[in-house]
Amino acid sequence: MRFLKVLFWLLLGGVVTAFVLYNGEQRVSVLLWGGLIADFSLPMLLILLFLAGFLPMLLAYHAMRWRLRQRIAGLQRALEDLRAIHAAAPAPTPVPVPAPEALPAPAGLSPAP
Protein backbone atom coordinates (compact mmCIF):
# COMPACT_ATOMS: atom_id res chain seq x y z
CA MET A 1 0.00 0.00 0.00
CA ARG A 2 2.89 2.34 0.79
CA PHE A 3 4.26 1.74 -2.73
CA LEU A 4 0.99 2.90 -4.29
CA LYS A 5 0.96 5.97 -2.07
CA VAL A 6 4.51 6.91 -3.10
CA LEU A 7 3.71 6.20 -6.74
CA PHE A 8 0.64 8.45 -6.57
CA TRP A 9 2.61 11.36 -5.10
CA LEU A 10 5.40 10.91 -7.64
CA LEU A 11 2.91 10.95 -10.50
CA LEU A 12 1.18 14.01 -9.07
CA GLY A 13 4.53 15.75 -8.70
CA GLY A 14 5.40 14.87 -12.29
CA VAL A 15 2.10 16.28 -13.56
CA VAL A 16 2.61 19.51 -11.60
CA THR A 17 6.20 19.82 -12.86
CA ALA A 18 5.12 19.30 -16.46
CA PHE A 19 2.36 21.88 -16.02
CA VAL A 20 4.81 24.41 -14.57
CA LEU A 21 7.33 23.84 -17.36
CA TYR A 22 4.70 24.09 -20.08
CA ASN A 23 2.81 27.12 -18.67
CA GLY A 24 5.56 28.89 -16.70
CA GLU A 25 5.60 32.00 -18.89
CA GLN A 26 1.86 32.72 -18.85
CA ARG A 27 0.77 35.59 -16.61
CA VAL A 28 -2.69 36.05 -15.09
CA SER A 29 -4.07 39.36 -13.85
CA VAL A 30 -6.28 39.11 -10.76
CA LEU A 31 -8.54 42.05 -9.93
CA LEU A 32 -8.44 42.70 -6.17
CA TRP A 33 -10.44 45.07 -3.97
CA GLY A 34 -10.11 48.82 -4.45
CA GLY A 35 -9.09 48.53 -8.10
CA LEU A 36 -5.81 46.74 -7.32
CA ILE A 37 -4.54 44.30 -9.91
CA ALA A 38 -2.18 41.46 -8.99
CA ASP A 39 -0.11 39.84 -11.71
CA PHE A 40 0.65 36.13 -11.04
CA SER A 41 2.20 33.37 -13.06
CA LEU A 42 -0.46 30.76 -13.87
CA PRO A 43 1.28 27.76 -12.22
CA MET A 44 1.97 29.66 -9.01
CA LEU A 45 -1.64 30.84 -8.82
CA LEU A 46 -3.02 27.33 -9.34
CA ILE A 47 -0.64 25.80 -6.78
CA LEU A 48 -1.59 28.47 -4.22
CA LEU A 49 -5.29 27.90 -4.82
CA PHE A 50 -4.84 24.13 -4.53
CA LEU A 51 -3.04 24.55 -1.20
CA ALA A 52 -5.70 27.01 0.00
CA GLY A 53 -8.32 24.29 -0.48
CA PHE A 54 -6.23 21.29 0.54
CA LEU A 55 -4.57 22.47 3.76
CA PRO A 56 -7.75 23.23 5.77
CA MET A 57 -9.15 19.79 4.93
CA LEU A 58 -5.83 18.16 5.83
CA LEU A 59 -5.81 19.96 9.18
CA ALA A 60 -9.43 18.95 9.86
CA TYR A 61 -8.58 15.33 9.01
CA HIS A 62 -5.62 15.26 11.39
CA ALA A 63 -7.66 16.92 14.14
CA MET A 64 -10.39 14.29 13.73
CA ARG A 65 -7.85 11.46 13.84
CA TRP A 66 -6.26 12.93 16.99
CA ARG A 67 -9.66 13.30 18.67
CA LEU A 68 -10.65 9.72 17.82
CA ARG A 69 -7.31 8.36 19.06
CA GLN A 70 -7.79 10.22 22.35
CA ARG A 71 -11.29 8.82 22.65
CA ILE A 72 -10.10 5.26 21.95
CA ALA A 73 -7.28 5.63 24.49
CA GLY A 74 -9.78 6.80 27.12
CA LEU A 75 -12.08 3.86 26.39
CA GLN A 76 -9.16 1.44 26.63
CA ARG A 77 -8.15 2.91 30.01
CA ALA A 78 -11.72 2.55 31.26
CA LEU A 79 -11.82 -1.05 30.04
CA GLU A 80 -8.55 -1.84 31.80
CA ASP A 81 -9.90 -0.29 35.02
CA LEU A 82 -13.06 -2.40 34.79
CA ARG A 83 -11.02 -5.54 34.17
CA ALA A 84 -8.84 -4.77 37.19
CA ILE A 85 -11.89 -4.22 39.39
CA HIS A 86 -13.49 -7.42 38.10
CA ALA A 87 -10.30 -9.44 38.70
CA ALA A 88 -9.96 -8.10 42.27
CA ALA A 89 -13.58 -8.83 43.23
CA PRO A 90 -14.24 -12.22 44.87
CA ALA A 91 -16.10 -14.74 42.77
CA PRO A 92 -19.78 -14.94 43.75
CA THR A 93 -20.77 -18.12 45.54
CA PRO A 94 -23.66 -19.96 43.95
CA VAL A 95 -26.85 -20.17 45.99
CA PRO A 96 -28.16 -23.74 46.22
CA VAL A 97 -31.60 -24.18 44.73
CA PRO A 98 -33.78 -26.80 46.47
CA ALA A 99 -35.02 -29.71 44.42
CA PRO A 100 -38.66 -29.51 43.24
CA GLU A 101 -39.69 -32.41 45.50
CA ALA A 102 -38.48 -30.61 48.60
CA LEU A 103 -40.59 -27.51 47.97
CA PRO A 104 -43.61 -27.21 50.30
CA ALA A 105 -47.08 -27.33 48.72
CA PRO A 106 -48.90 -24.03 48.37
CA ALA A 107 -51.50 -23.23 51.03
CA GLY A 108 -54.98 -24.57 50.29
CA LEU A 109 -53.81 -27.27 47.88
CA SER A 110 -53.26 -30.81 48.89
CA PRO A 111 -50.28 -32.73 47.53
CA ALA A 112 -50.95 -35.21 44.74
CA PRO A 113 -51.48 -38.87 45.95
TrEMBL record:
Compositional bias segments (type: Low complexity): 104-113
Transmembrane regions: 42-61
Pfam family, one: LapA_dom
InterPro entries (UniProt xref): LapA_dom
Residue span(s) of domain Lipopolysaccharide assembly protein A: 26-83
UniProt entry keywords in alphabetical sequence: Cell membrane, Membrane, Transmembrane, Transmembrane helix
Keyword RNA-binding attached: no
Segments of this protein annotated with the region Disordered: 91-113
Keyword Membrane: yes
Signal peptide residues on this chain, from the entry's feature table: none
Biased composition, class Pro residues, residue ranges: 91-103
Protein name in UniProt: Lipopolysaccharide assembly protein LapA domain-containing protein
Native source species: Sphingomonas canadensis
